[in-house]
Amino acid sequence: MSKRAVLEVIALDVEDAVAAQAGGADRLELVTDMAADGLTPSAGTVAGIRAAVDIRARIMLRRADGFAAGDAGDVDRLVRTVGELREAGAEEFVLGFLDSDGRVDLDTVERVVGVLDGCAWTFHRAIDRAADRDALRKQLDGLPGLDTYLTAGSAGGVDDGLPTLLAEAERRGQPGYEQQLLVGGGLRLDHVPVLRAAGVDGFHIGGAARPGGWQAPVSAEAVAEWRAVLDAC
């Protein structure tokens, strides 16, 4: 298996971004407010990070905790935010919205994707709360820029979702399954060998990059340990 696995690290600020790049991360996920599981950072934060590092960064598009898009005014504000983030240097994004029944909120996703102007984007762990994962994938299939699903396979995390992740890895290339599987959510180093053996080539870490907890910055050494394990598998 020669393809280098992608290692994506959550960054909250410039210090995090610099440490993640130093440790060998391939890409950042930029967010704020991890108490709400990660919301959209400010345009100023994005601009500062783009100036400090040269690895790719995907920007979270999410205004409130949970996976509902909110009302029409909330969606309007999110669309305006995309323009501000683009001006700050954002070129890749992360998003995902569900309705109250756990189905993909396709109207909102399509509206937001429409203003991304072809930028690459990840559908995030909203898929792990979806009523029907397969139906969600097929509804989103063909949307411009969608190239990744961030998932633990289960709302409970990778331990619970491992069978689903392995099954989805086997389906890669089928309709709705062409996108990269980016595994994150309770991911540990001991999960890596079985996931790599199944062909998974995307890994996403947040707390694992911060031995001191979310109040502490990203550790370049912790990221380097993940880089080494991924490269060895």
| CATH topology category name | TIM Barrel
Provide the domain count. Answer: 1
Give the number of DSSP strands.
Answer: 8
Main sheet: strands, sense, barrel: 8 strands, parallel, barrel
Order of helices and strands: EHEHEHEHEHEHEHEH
- Kindly provide the name of the CATH class: Alpha Beta
The CATH superfamily is Copper homeostasis (CutC) domain
Helix content: 25-40%
Family: Belongs to the CutC family.
Protein name: Copper homeostasis protein cutC homolog
Pfam families: CutC
InterPro entries: CutC-like, CutC-like_dom_sf
Overview of the molecule:
By secondary structure, this protein is an alpha/beta fold. It has one domain (6-232): Copper homeostasis (CutC) domain (TIM Barrel), CATH 3.20.20. 37% of the residues lie in helices and 16% in strands. Strands 1-2-3-4-5-6-7-8 form an 8-stranded parallel barrel. Helix 6 links the parallel strand 6 and strand 7. Helix 1 runs parallel beside helix 8 (220-232). The radius of gyration is 17 Å and the shape is globular. The termini are close together. 41% of the residues are buried. The model has no long low-confidence stretch (mean pLDDT 96). This is Copper homeostasis protein cutC homolog. InterPro entries: CutC-like (IPR005627), CutC-like_dom_sf (IPR036822). Belongs to the CutC family. It holds the Pfam family CutC.
In short:
Pfam families: CutC. The chain has eight helices and eight strands.
Topology summary:
Elements: E1 6-11, H1 14-23, E2 27-30, H2 43-52, E3 56-60, H3 72-87, E4 92-95, H4 106-116, E5 120-123, H5 133-140, E6 146-151, H6 158-170, E7 180-183, H7 192-197, E8 202-205, H8 220-232
Parallel strand pairs: 1-2, 1-8, 2-3, 3-4, 4-5, 5-6, 6-7, 7-8
